[in-house]
User: Fold this.
Amino acid sequence: MGFGRLGARGVPGAVALTITLDEIAQVTHPYRSPPPERLRRNLLYLTRSRTGYTYMHDCGIRMDRRMITAWLAEECLPAADQQRRLEDAFRLLRRRNMTSSMTRRLDADGGTRVEIYPVDQSAVEGKHRRNPRWRHKNIYRWAPIVTAWSCSDLHELTRAWHDVITDLDSDWRMYEYVDHLGFWA
Assistant:
């Protein structure tokens, strides 16, 4: 039986790790800035180095200096597809640039405590509902997790998440999918 067939709601642990690490690294925070400001932030971040231009090119953005100047001056706006590609390029470059500092920050003082909140089972029928409790786990070695996150390698991140939750005891499979994660970072 697949996840969610009985009404449970949650995301895979690796996806929750990605979301939480993105929030810590300020890669994504759409609730703080409206789209025009986000576009300007992305363009300024990407155009400060040759690496940013490389990431834009790798994400399929082909443009000249005049186009960037027009976008920054808000004379014209990129198409929705180009905005999505700019977001992708920004996310990849920001993750790459934050890898070493995130690893140092999360490894400091003997690791970081992670609170694991189980899936939301409010829509599950009573006879099928389990009563998982939230758990906490100290993670001492963040390098493989942060490296997988920076490369957007969901397969490796899933493997790293399984390494973390297998220490929880016999009910570790209950935490493959989670509602969200909280970091004490």
The chain has two domains: 11-25+105-183, 35-98. Residues 80-107 form the longest helix (28 residues). The radius of gyration is 19 Å. The mean pLDDT is 83.
